[in-house]
Amino acid sequence: MSKPDQAFVAQQAVPAGVVATRWWWVRHAPVRDDNGCIYGQKDLGCDTSDRVVMEAVGRILPRNAIWFASNLKRTHQTAEAIWAAGYPQPGMLIQEVAFAEQNLGDWQGLNRAAFFASRPIEVGSYWFAPIDEPAPGGESFVDVYERVKRAVDRINLENAGRDVIVASHGGTIKAAIALALGGLVEKGLAFTIDNCSVTRLDHLASQAHSGWRLPMVNQQPWMADASHNAMHQPAGPERASPTKLG
Q: For residues 122 and 115, what is the distance between their CA atoms, to the nearest angstrom?
């Protein structure tokens, strides 16, 4: 495995007296056995077989980071695949339930295409529902935002100045972006978060102020390989054929 890409891994300049805690959010690898259905917090596995993708993700992640994952196995499988592709395995992968995908309740198991066709276009084009509408028997996106915020705030205090890598989910990462945008919850849904992509959000804190900067969102480092120049890792019915990319 080649050395990390220092253009991404190197710390950006931080003013004196400011502590930067760098968050590296990695969305899990594609889910193949959802049968085109909404899965939310259903504990489905994912396809981590594309080593080129896993190597590329590992190259831009910092070493000596603290690693988190949600309680759902697809995030653990993704982290383990990155390590198997050459990233030095950390001593611990901390499971954080707050970083799970949105609980979509009774919508889980419904055909995804049919569900979105039944919703107003201004809703379906962004997320499953308006931010304050909970899924029947589940959560709203505001609920996701609030639990992600609480966990991020706590980890920022406990690990100030560290690199934090989180193997997580599309909705969770959108919530983290919304937090970095100053709590503009709905704006977080405007971002696309593809499978295996990396999003970096830096928390900057001094005695008088704290805030965020957004160095990169939905970065797809495998695109540098000519055989993997697709914009994203297709999941489920998005695949053109059952053959592996590349």
A: 14
